[in-house]
Automatic annotation (TrEMBL):
PANTHER family: FATTY ACID SYNTHASE (PTHR45527:SF1), NONRIBOSOMAL PEPTIDE SYNTHETASE (PTHR45527). The lineage of its organism: Bacteria, Bacillati, Bacillota, Bacilli, Bacillales. This is Non-ribosomal peptide synthetase. The keyword Flavoprotein does not apply. Pfam families: Condensation (PF00668). Residues 3-329 form the Condensation domain. GO terms for molecular function: catalytic activity; phosphopantetheine binding. The keyword Phosphoprotein applies. Keywords: Phosphopantetheine, Phosphoprotein, Repeat.
Length: 344
């Protein structure tokens, strides 16, 4: 691992490791300023197509065209409107989430972390999907509501900001481009105990849609505008994230050659706690990435149990008040936490 110097190209390094005569690791070391998760999928897909002898259709635009558009007057006007939206959303005293921790918060933020993986069973997954269909919501919105209820239960707070990444490719012409498009949204919700889950989900839905519509506004500028008090032991605006990954790992077959993602050990936590969901082999797979300077594995086990308990209760009684939702897991044959042996 070597640091990149942004003023000196290249910002991409590629290496090949031979493990055996018929097994190799092809590594891409890229600075995040020139790529994101979607970019990696594009890179692998086009690599495989070229390896198979295909010719790629020339791109209609380049990333530099996107960069020029970002500096245009029309885009500046659009950002002014979006700035007003975000300043309205984040007005007043901003909440600082206080989850119970096993260790005292370090004076300087630590990135030491670990990941706990689990599976949301078929019964719960179908229940979540049914709620989404019945309310005109998305699975993302339903899971965000469940996650913020979990955070509310552990913190006792009814004003919670959760960060979430957004793909940022708002125009079809951007879909085939490699580059850094991902943005960060600070989504503020109010899980008050007297609300029913359906009422709260409707609020989450409207808040999420508003955030999506105003996703172009740069997060760094928003932090400056709301004048967050900086603490070396915390992130600005929020310390927890929610990530729903709807990009599948790619496995390609070229004759006798198979190309698949190489799984790596994960020991970094960018935030105090990140709840993530992805879909793998027909399963709804979840994970909690957590800071090991704050939480122990047993505490995160409890987060998982609590989240599954919340999901069970909102699927069975979606009109239940948040105050009546408990963290006690409902035991049945399909309600166990299944740990799975893969990394993201």
């Amino acid at each position: 691992i070597r640091a990149f110097e942004l003023a000196k190209p290249p910002l991409l390094r590629v290496g090949l490791i031979e493990l055996a005569k018929d097994r190799h690791i092809l590594m891409f070391d890229m600075h995040h300023i020139i790529s994101d998760g979607v970019s990696m999928n594009i890179l692998v897909e086009e690599f495989v197509r070229l390896y198979g002898g295909e010719e790629l259709i020339p791109l209609t635009i380049q990333y530099k065209d996107y960069a020029a558009w970002q500096q245009s007057e029309a885009h500046s006007e659009r950002l002014k409107q979006q700035e007003a939206y975000w300043l309205q959303e984040l007005q007043g005293e901003l909440p600082q989430l206080e989850l119970p921790t096993y260790f005292s918060r370090p004076p300087i933020r630590s990135y030491e972390g670990d990941v706990l993986h689990f599976v949301i069973d078929k019964q719960r997954s179908e229940g979540l999907q049914q709620i989404a269909e019945n309310t005109g919501s998305t699975l993302y919105m339903v899971l965000l509501a469940a996650y913020t209820i979990l955070l509310h239960k552990y913190s006792g707070q009814e004003d919670i900001i959760v960060g979430t990444p957004i793909a940022g490719r708002t125009h079809a012409d951007l879909e085939p481009l490699i580059g850094m498009f991902v943005g960060t949204l600070a989504i503020r919700n109010y899980p008050a105990k007297d609300k029913t889950f359906f009422t709260y989900l409707e609020e989450v839905k409207e808040t999420t849609l508003g955030a999506y519509e105003n996703q172009d506004y740069p997060f760094e500028e928003l932090v400056e505008k709301v004048q967050v008090t900086r603490e070396l032991g915390r992130n600005p605006l929020f310390d927890v994230m929610f990530v729903l990954q709807n990009t599948e790992d790619q496995t390609a077959h070229l004759g006798e050659l198979t190309v698949e993602t190489y799984r790596q050990n994960h020991t970094i936590a960018k935030f105090d706690l990140t709840f993530g969901i992805r879909f793998e082999d027909g399963q709804t797979c979840g994970y909690f990435e957590y800071c090991t300077k704050l939480f122990t594995k047993s505490m995160v086990d409890n987060f998982v149990e609590g989240l599954l308990a919340i999901i069970s209760q909102i699927c069975e009684q979606p009109h239940r008040r948040l105050a009546d939702i408990t963290l006690n897991p409902i035991r049945n044959e399909e309600a166990s936490v299944e740990e799975i042996d893969f990394a993201f």
